[in-house]
Amino acid sequence: MAEQALISADYQPAQDAFDGRVILVTGATGGIGSAVCRRLAAAGATLVILDKDLKALEALYDRIVEDNHPEPAIYPMNLEGATFDNFPEVAQRIREGLGRLDGLLHAAATMGKPAPIELYDMETWYKTLQVNLNAAFMLTQACLPLLRESDQGSILFTSDASGRNGRKAYGGAYAVANAGLEGLMRVLAAELAENTSVCVNTLDPGIVATGLRQKEFPFENPLELTQPQQVAGAFLRLLGPDGRDCHGQALSVEPAQA
């Protein structure tokens, strides 16, 4: 069983901690993805930002460049409709364009629809598992050769408590996909422990004011919740050199101090 521990959200990397490093982020324009991307770019990382919304990707690109950070590479891709061949193409284009890959953050997710398993819509089930679990597996598999070449490679799956305790009634495909990510992480961590420097972990950011959260709980006041930028530091620690002590762990974000 993977160890569960807390990662502080107050983490601040050294100014040059990510200089020369290339990090691929899926769901890059989402609440958490965007916040982490901006922090990574500020720490010197060259980003490959992947999401389905080209306009949102261009807006994130502009914001990073306007802040005088390394120019990111844009990769528009709809994970829901992606085929087996699309994922090796991502890795190949990174190799040809940037020559390396040091980190992979899976931040893309879709909520599906809360419902009892007995009544769960089959199409929604397949789509949710495709985006949240199958795409994460296929992209990880495609990128592993590049990550193995890094001296400090890192794979980080964004998870949720529903995938760990297995008791979220009506969580449906979303909860099942998160449980699958936890299993994928543990298997992959065991396989990579002896023959590579790649670190693999899952991170549960907790209750955060994101678009996904708002869809599930539309009557919540997002201003009363933890904001994406408040948890970004924990993601940076696990993706950077200071996260080398974490491998095969199911981690949760320790809220930032007020």
TrEMBL record:
Example of a GO MF term: oxidoreductase activity
UniProt domain Ketoreductase: residue ranges: 21-206
Superkingdom classification of source: Bacteria
InterPro entries: KR_dom, NAD(P)-bd_dom_sf, SDR_fam
Family: Belongs to the short-chain dehydrogenases/reductases (SDR) family.
Tagged with keyword Oxidoreductase: yes
Source organism (scientific name): Halorhodospira halophila (strain DSM 244 / SL1)
Protein name: Short-chain dehydrogenase/reductase SDR
Keywords: Oxidoreductase
Keyword Oxidoreductase: yes
Any single Pfam family the record assigns to this protein: adh_short
SUPFAM superfamilies with a match to the protein in the record: NAD(P)-binding Rossmann-fold domains
